[in-house]
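Now for one protein, fold included:
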Amino acid sequence: MTIEASVNARVAEVTDRIVRRSHESRARYLDRIAETAGTPVRRRLGCANQAHAFAACGARDKKLMQDGHVPSLGIVTAYNDMLSAHQPYQRFPDLIRESARAAGGVAQVAGGVPAMCDGITQGEAGMELSLFSRDVIALSTAVALSHQTFDAAVYLGICDKIVPGLVIGALSFGHLPAVFIPSGPMTSGLPNDEKAKTRQAYAEGKVGRDALLEAEARAYHGPGTCTFYGTANTNQMLMEIMGLHLPGASFVNPNTPLRDALTRAATERALAITFHGNEYTPIGKMLDERAFVNGIVGLHATGGSTNHTLHLVAMAAAAGITLSWEDFADLAEVAPLLARIYPNGSADVNHFHAAGGMSFLVRELLGAGLLHANVTTVWGTGLAAYLYEPKLGSQGALTWHEGTQTSGDPSVLRDVAEPFQETGGLNVLEGELGRAVIKTSAVAPERHLVQAPARVFHSQEEFQNAFAAGEFTSDLVVVLRFQGPKANGMPELHKLMPPLGVLQDRGLKVALVTDGRLSGASGKVPAAIHVTPEGAEGGAIAKICDGDLIRVDAVAGRLEVLVDPEDWRTRAPALFDHSISQRGVGRELFAVFRDRVGRADSGASIFLGMSE
C-alpha cells in the first residue's frame, strides 16, 4: 500500500507500521473474502432453498428473485421502540424496499440485532451486559446474513455497542458491500450543561428526585440520538469519516424529508456498488488500514468517546488489521482538537452540525494532511466527496453542495489554525499500574496532573456510601477495581461522575483510576480508565491499598504508584470474588464471555484470530 505523499509524516508513519504489523493477517483476510466474492451464492442454492428465501415476498419481488438477475439487498436492523435513537428505524424498511424497487432491485429484512441503552442501564446490573452486547450483535449480524441470498447489505444502527457490533459482523461477510444508515440526533432539548448542574445538585442533596427526573426528561425528549457527544454520536462521526455513510448523513434529524431522502439515496447507492455493476465495493477491502487511521484522527479531533479505544481495535481485528493503543497515542500528538461538544463544551451535536459539521471537519483535517484522502468510500474513491453536504432542491430532489469553508460558531467548531488544543482529546497512560486511557478534552489543563492518596473501592455503591457519609475532605484518587471485562463485563461507571464533580468543585484535587469504563460520561474529572491488566487477572490495580500515593499524569502519559519499590514488588494483589456479579438480569448467560474475553487494549472482544 502506498501512503500519499501529502499526508502528515506522523500519520504516514503510524499507518505504515500498522500495514507492516498487519501484513500477514490482513492478507489472509483478503484472500478469504476474495474466495467468496463473485456470483451470488443464492444462484447456487437448491430450488427449495431459494423458494424459502422469497416465499413471503410480493409477486413482483418474487418474480425478480426467482429470475435471479437483479441485485438483492439485505437489511440488518437494530430497531426497537424503546431506544430513542432506534425508534425512527421502524419506518426505514418500507422506505428501503420502495427505493430498491425503484432502482431495479429487491430488499428484505435479513434479521434483527439487539440494541440496549447504556442510559437506561447505567448504575444497574444490566450495564454488565453492555460491552458484551457488541459481540452478540456481531454474531446476530452473521446469523442474519448466513442465508447467503444478498448482494449487499444496509445496516440500521446508531448507538453505543450497536454500530461496532454491526461493523464486526459486516466484516465477517467482507465480500458484501455495506452502507450504514443513521437515524439522526433528536432536536435540542434542555442544554447539556444545565442537565449536568441538576445532576450535581441532586448528588449534593440540593434538589429532589422530581427535579432530577424533570431535567432528564427535558434533555432526552424525543426520537433520535441523545444530543451529547458520547459513543452514539462518535459512532456517526466515525461511519462518515471512514466512508460508510453517505456524505453529510450523520447528523440530520429524524423524520424529516431530508432524512428520508438520504435513506433512499443510501439504498440506491448500496445497490449500485454490488458485484452486478461497475463499482463493486466490498466492505472488507474498503475498510483498510488508512480508513482506520482516518477514524482515529477523527476521534481525537472531536474529543470522541473513550469506548472507541476498545471498539476500533476490535473492528480492525475483524478485518485482519492490528491496532494498538500506541497508534492512538502517537496520532493524538498531531491531531488537534477542533470541536467542543458536551461533555467537552456546552454545545450539542445539532450545534456542531449547524456550525459546519462533518464537511468542515473533514475539510480542515484533509487540508492539514491529517487524513488519507485517497481511500475508498461507499460514495466512490476519495474523501473529497465528504466536503459536500446534502440539501433538498425546490422539487424535493436530493442534491449536494459544497460545505462551508468557515466555522459558523468558533466556540463549537474551529479550524486547524486555531484549535481548542494542539493535541487530541485522548491520551494513553503507562506505568507501574499498567496501561490506561484518559480523556483530556473536557478536563481543565491545571487538572491534567493529579497526585494524591488512594481510596480503594470495589463497587460504585461503596463509593457513593462513603461520599454520602462525608468521608472525603482532602485530595484523593478514587480507585475502583474489579470492573474489567473478565470481572463483570466492564460496565460504564456513570454514577461516579456527579459526586466526583462535587468534590472537585469543593476545591479538592480528585482523579479516578479504574479498570472499568466511562465513555461519553468522561467529563471534567480526570479519569484513568480501561486499566489493563485488570484487577480480576491479578493486574497491578489489585495491589493498591488505601493511602498509597497515586500519580495520574496526562501530560507525561504516566500512571504511577509512589510507594517503596520493595514493598510494591512483594505485595500480593487482592483477590477478586468470582461469586460476585454472576447471576441475575441474564448475567449467568454471559459466563462464557467473561471467561473468553480479551484484554482492554486488544479490544475486550471474545473473538480471537478472526482473520485466520
Observations:
- The chain has a mean pLDDT of 92.
- The radius of gyration is 24 Å.
- The longest strand covers residues 449-457.
- The longest helix spans residues 130-145.
